[in-house]
């Protein structure tokens, strides 16, 4: 489990997506550099869902890290100025997991007891809408709700 670093910023969402799209393009023989350039101009599919949980912030952070284990690159855990923590990683979505989505789980102490977790997913969208950001968030939220019986959505879930 990485130790939160106050001085390390979260990796930039757009730059991370462009980098991983370029790497995916190179893996199938296309021009990675051109793909990275074009990726900067694509729209993003973004979804955020806020969860409330009875878990203490430390336990919620540990669960957030487990939710993104196995994602590429290794996750970044950053202590935020407001006392919360953010976990950021990249996961594959879409056909064959080739569309990268950046997922960020922000854990803060809730008023009173428990924690609030903001789950954000973002992916670039080309001509074929894969809704990678939305699918990444829905997967994490489903796994979180299965693992944490005290959790519930504070944001309406998409249809």
Task: Please write out the topology.
Blueprint: H1 13-27, H2 32-39, E1 43-53, H3 57-67, E2 76-79, E3 85-93, E4 99-109, E5 115-125, H4 132-147, E6 152-153
Antiparallel strand pairs: 1-5, 1-6, 2-3, 3-4, 4-5
Helix pairs in contact: 1-2
Task: Describe the 3D structure.
There is one protein chain. This protein is an alpha+beta fold and 159 residues long. Helix content is 31%, strand content 30%. The protein is built from 4 helices and 6 strands, in the order ααβαββββαβ. The protein has helices at 13-27, 32-39, 57-67, 132-147; strands spanning 43-53, 76-79, 85-93, 99-109, 115-125, 152-153. A 6-stranded antiparallel sheet has the order 2-3-4-5-1-6, sandwiched between helices. α1 packs antiparallel against α2. The N and C termini lie far apart (34 Å).
Structural class: alpha+beta
Strand content: 25-35%
How many strands, which pairing sense, and closed or not: the largest β-sheet?
Answer: 6 strands, antiparallel
Cα-to-Cα separation, first versus last residue: 34 Å
**Average pLDDT across residues?**
82
List the total number of helices: 4
Order of helices and strands: HHEHEEEEHE
- In terms of per-residue confidence, which ranges show pLDDT below 50 for 5 or more consecutive residues? 1-7
Order the strands across the largest sheet as they lie in space: 2-3-4-5-1-6
Instruction: Give the overall shape, derived from the CA principal axes.
Output: elongated
DSSP E strands, number: 6
Radius of gyration, taken over Cα atoms and rounded to an integer in Å: 16 Å
Helix percent band: 25-40%
């Amino acid at each position: 489990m990485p130790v939160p670093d106050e001085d390390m910023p979260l990796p930039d969402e757009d730059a991370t997506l462009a980098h991983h799209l370029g790497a995916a393009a190179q893996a199938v023989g296309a021009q990675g550099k051109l793909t990275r350039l074009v990726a900067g101009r694509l729209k993003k599919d973004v979804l955020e869902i806020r969860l409330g949980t009875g878990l203490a912030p430390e336990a919620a952070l540990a669960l957030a890290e487990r939710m993104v284990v196995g994602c590429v690159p290794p996750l970044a855990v950053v202590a935020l100025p407001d006392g919360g923590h953010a976990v950021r990683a990249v996961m594959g979505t879409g056909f064959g997991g080739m569309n990268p989505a950046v997922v960020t789980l922000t854990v803060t102490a809730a008023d009173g007891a428990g924690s609030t977790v903001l789950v954000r997913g973002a992916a670039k969208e080309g001509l074929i809408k894969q809704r990678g950001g939305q699918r990444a968030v829905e997967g994490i939220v489903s796994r979180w709700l299965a693992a944490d019986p005290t959790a519930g959505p504070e944001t309406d879930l998409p249809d």
